[in-house]
Amino acid sequence: MAVEASVATFGGVLLCTGPNATGVCIHSVYPMMSCVDLEPPLRHNTATFAPDGEAFVCYPYSAGCDGICTSPEGCTKGPISFYSPDKFDLSISGWNSFIESFECRSNESSLPRVS
Ligand SMILES: *[C@@H]1O[C@H](CO)[C@@H](O)[C@H](O)[C@H]1NC(C)=O
Ligand SMILES: *[C@@H]1O[C@H](CO)[C@@H](O)[C@H](O)[C@H]1NC(C)=O
């Protein structure tokens, strides 16, 4: 229902250099399952990471999209959703300065992969 009605805008994320939607902000709609490299000034500098209220989550990565990740945890903080308490201040965890790229997945495809 809500998903079908909002296909054209599904996947919006607000990114800002400062906490609580301050500083330089960009709001865009991003495709699911597709890595996005952050550009300056947001690269390693995103305190607000606020997905819109649809059924999707986003995984911030501490490497670029084509970077090699050697951490067993996958170099991601994720997942962050509309309901995540830290979406307006990633600096609480230090991830405002770690983040270099991110990927969003609709809730249907966000279940952890069995490996
Ligand atoms: C962001 O806003 C919340 C709620 O108003 C406030 O408690 C918090 O201190 C603010 N954070 C910063 C870093 O300004
Ligand atoms: C999507 O999944 C996330 C993570 O499980 C959850 O926190 C969020 O509430 C879900 N969103 C919706 C709209 O169902």
TrEMBL record:
Protein name (database record): Uncharacterized protein
Give the originating organism: Cercophora newfieldiana
